[in-house]
Each structure stands twice: as C-alpha cells, then as structure tokens.
Amino acid sequence: MDYANRGRPPQKKKPQKKRTSKSRAKAPARPAVPWWLVILAIVLVVALVLGLRFISGKGEQQAQQPSAQPLPQQQTTAEDSEALPEKPEERWQYIEELENFEVEVDVPERELGPPKLMQCGSFRREADAQTLKAQIAMVGLEAQVRATNGSNGLWYRVILGPYETKRDAERDRHKLQRAQVFGCQIWNWNL
Question: How confident is the model over 88-109, as pLDDT tens digits?
C-alpha cells in the first residue's frame, strides 16, 4: 500500500451555529477617555514646546528686540596701541639645564663564574659519539669527544666549550636546536 499517495481521510463537517442578535449586543463597549486626561495631555505638550524654545534661546531673542540705534564703535588710535604692554619674552630654564646635564650610571661589573661546558650527548660506543660530533661540525661548531670512566663503565661524552659566560653557551645551543640537535645542557664544569 502506498502511504505517500494516499489521500487524507474525509473530514467530518461541524455544524455551524447561527448568530443571534443577542451575541452582537454583548460586544464590549470601549471606555470613553475622561475629558480631564485630554486637557492634561494638551497642557503637557504645550509646556514641553515652551521649555524647548526657552532652552534653545529663541524665546529670549524674541523678548529682546534689537535696538534701532547702532552702538558707537570705539575708534582705536596709534596712541592706544602703544599703551599696550609689550609681549614678555619667554624664558625657559630647563633647555639650558638639559644641554649641560650629564647622567652618571653605575653599572656593576659582572662576576664571571666558573667556565661553562655544554654536553650534547653521552654514549657507550665511540662511533655514536663521533656521529654526533660530525652533526655538530656541520652547524659550524667544534665539539670534543672525551672518554670518561664512571662507576657503571666507560662513557663517551660529546662536549662543547669552555664558554666564559652562559649567554655564549646559550647562543651555541640555539644554533644546535635550529639544526635539530636537541638535548644539550649547560653546566658549570672545571676542566
């Protein structure tokens, strides 16, 4: 059975009620506006208009009519212009003070600590240490491979330095990080 093409079932018709004259008579009547409310609205509108005219100044202009007689203009003479005081010359003291002013700054000397060494790897096999040394040489830095006997055997360390300041060591470490050589650490080591 095809539900999409099936039509709607027929609707039952509701019987319509006839309107009577009584239902028309029961229509609600609009309440009349009280006369005092209309007068109050008119008074408020007039007061608003007069207030706006007073604020804008047009009410004052109509009240004060310009006089028909022109006011006598004061004539300036050469004597009056000479009676004015001369314009004072500006004197700025700080310009002269700043030209001759010297600033003295006390910069404390940096204390140089022990030399800094940067270790980039530690390997059991010397071939691995030499491979890392070659990668570092491709960046343009010179590394050293040192053999160290520790408690757990022989280790080959790849180190750079010594550096006088930590800033110099950080500069080289950033070069190595750009060349994808990670894991380098800066330590205070004595040679």
Answer: 877 777 777 788 888 888 888 8
